[in-house]
Amino acid sequence: MQTKINEDKLVQMVNWLVNHPKVQYRLCDDESEVSPEEFIETMELFERNGFHEWIPVLFLKNCYNDVLHQAMTSLLIEKAGQEWQRIGTEQLCKEIKDKIKEEIRLKEDRRSTF
């Protein structure tokens, strides 16, 4: 049953993108980078239509935009500070080291895959 719901949502999302070529261009075109204002506009459009899954994709596609990069960095630092306060220094340090080790393994795996 879960698969059917996911497939229905995927079809809905693809059909929605077909009917919104400007958003499709912003999201899929290799050469396209949105302005911060277009990012907000597109993000709000995704929110209104229940397509929250596209928001991280939109960000990753445009993560080299200075304003968007700085906004996300500031948000992540703020959230990290809150998490640090919640879980404590020892746990946060452990999680950071674990994440770095995981990224090292993933990088090695990607290198050996190709």
Number of β-strand runs: 0
Low-confidence stretches: none
Helical amount: over 70%
Overall average residue pLDDT: 90
Measured on Cα atoms, how large is the radius of gyration? 18 Å
Please summarize the sheet with the most strands: none
The rough form would be described as extended
Number of helices: 6
Quaternary state of this entry equals single chain
Q: What is the H/E order? A: HHHHHH
Distance between the termini: 36 Å
Strand percentage:
under 5%
What structural class should be given to the helix and strand makeup? Answer: mainly alpha
Briefly summarize what is shown.
This protein has 114 residues and is an all-alpha fold.
What does this protein look like?
The protein is mainly alpha-helical and 114 residues long. Helices cover 82% and strands 0% of the residues. It is built from six helices and no strands. Helix 3 packs antiparallel against helix 4.
Give keywords:
114 residues, mainly alpha, 6 helices, single chain
Strand and helix layout:
Layout (H helix, E strand, L loop, with lengths): L1 H17 L2 H8 L7 H13 L5 H8 L4 H22 L1 H25 L1
Helix pairs in contact: 3-4, 5-6
